[in-house]
Amino acid sequence: MWEGDRPDEPDAAATFAALYDRYIGGDDPRRIPPTPAIRAYVESLLDRWYEMGDPRDIDDTSPWSDAPLMNNAHGPIIYFAMRYSMADEVSAACAQMAAERGLVCFDVQWNQLRPTAEEHLPA
């Protein structure tokens, strides 16, 4: 997910790669704090699902693959992985939550943009 303009589909992978390289995967070891919109998005995810390793998660229902989830947020982007067994259901909800907040959702596994909030509305 990232904060910014939604690119055309053919440009989405390149846009994601550029943001990822700049804020997450680059050689610069400085951690850039998440923007307020990205921070609010992560907080909304954690309001819905437990943080991985949360002692309240006695049934092991956290969908995340690592923790703390906020550590995956840098500047205007967050890149996070989820447990394979929960990925379909949780990724759809995460995409919807991002769209509702005006964030762009690019699904790395699908190599495409996820629908906007309007595209999720029933016909």
What does this molecule look like?
Helix content is 37%, strand content 7%. The strands form 2 sheets. It has a two-stranded antiparallel sheet with strand order 1-2. It has a two-stranded antiparallel sheet with strand order 3-4. It is globular and about 40 Å long. The two termini are 25 Å apart. The chain is mainly α. The model has no long low-confidence stretch (mean pLDDT 91). It has 4 helices and 4 strands; from the N terminus they run H-H-E-E-H-E-E-H.
Query: Which consecutive residue ranges, at least 5 long each, have pLDDT under 50?
Result: none
Structural class category: mainly alpha
Q: What portion of the residues fall into strands of 2 or more residues?
A: 5-15%
Give the C-alpha Rg. 14 Å
Average the pLDDT over all residues and give the rounded result: 91
Query: What is the number of strand segments?
Result: 4
Spatial ordering of strands, largest sheet: 1-2
Q: Which sequence of SSEs, written as H and E, runs from N to C? A: HHEEHEEH
What's the end-to-end separation, in Å? 25 Å
Please bin the fraction of helical residues: 25-40%
Molecular shape: globular
Topology diagram in text:
Layout: H1 9-23, H2 36-48, E1 73-74, E2 77-78, H3 87-100, E3 106-107, E4 112-113, H4 117-120
Question: Tags for this entry?
Answer:
123 residues; mainly alpha; two-stranded antiparallel sheet; two-stranded antiparallel ribbon; 4 helices; 4 strands; globular
Could you give a short description of this structure?
With 123 residues, this protein is mainly alpha-helical.
